[in-house]
Design goal:
globular; alpha/beta; Rossmann fold; 10 strands; 236 residues; four-stranded antiparallel β-sheet; 10 helices; single chain
Length: 236
């Protein structure tokens, strides 16, 4: 088992944002997390990556407890997060943004150049615009850059937070195809998405979160046919 959470509680002050979350991800999977705004999905990713500290519960990555580790340490272990809203450095070039994604492995010069080539292969437009300021890219290109930057740390587990948010359907389709390619290159994916249909079609399994709790889990095909999921997230 690559990632395992048992009874994780995370608070904002006295407000419980995660309420006893238990889930697991196997190596090589794409697992999706569905839920409405405010359900706790982003909080869960931030808790896994160490940005937020859980108050109780256990988080293990490759058998090692990480719930009290610093975010930099968690990245070095192989967990990388592509945050909602992209969080790019708009006044820096595309290339500099990408190189920042490899900061934790900055001594590995050859490895970084190899990863850079792989990112440019995944997103050819980033190669074409490598000297352009990140803030001048289109929304779709900025999302590609955010994902590419996350890939630059050479993660074992990639946490993706709403990658399709605000993008045109044609861009979304291309983005989901790229997520599958990244997964095929031995990177496990934990995908938070409101586009439930697209997410479930590429994931092997899924979880549904409401008010900080996991309320439903199962294979993607089962969730696609679940009446509650269809009504709440698929618009049918």
């Amino acid at each position: 088992m690559l990632l395992n959470l048992e009874g994780v509680h995370t608070f904002y002050g006295n407000f419980p944002a995660l309420r006893g979350v238990t889930l697991y991800i196997e190596k090589g999977e794409i697992v999706t997390l569905l839920g409405s705004n405010g359900a706790g999905k982003t909080t869960l990713l931030k808790t896994i990556s160490g940005i937020l500290r859980s108050r109780s519960g256990i988080i293990t990555f490759e058998g090692k407890r990480i719930e009290h580790f610093h975010p930099n340490t968690i990245v070095r272990l192989g967990v990388s997060q592509c945050a909602e809203g992209r969080k790019l450095f708009p006044e820096m070039s595309v290339l500099k943004n990408l190189r920042l994604g490899a900061y934790v492995r900055r001594q590995d010069k050859k490895g970084i150049e190899k990863s850079l080539g792989e990112v440019f292969h995944l997103f050819p437009v980033l190669s074409e615009r490598s000297k352009q300021l990140a803030g001048t890219l289109s929304g779709g290109e900025q999302q590609m850059l955010a994902m590419g930057r996350a890939v630059m740390s050479n993660p074992t587990l990639l946490l993706l937070d709403e990658p399709s948010l605000g993008l045109a359907p044609i861009v979304v389709r291309a983005l989901f195809q790229t997520i599958q390619i990244i997964n095929q290159r031995q990177t496990t994916i934990f995908l938070v998405e409101q586009n439930a249909s697209q997410a479930l079609h590429i994931a092997q399994r899924g979880y549904v979160m409401e008010t900080g709790k996991i309320v439903l889990t199962g294979p993607s095909k089962a969730l696609l046919n679940d009446e509650k999921v269809k009504h709440a997230y698929l618009g049918t």
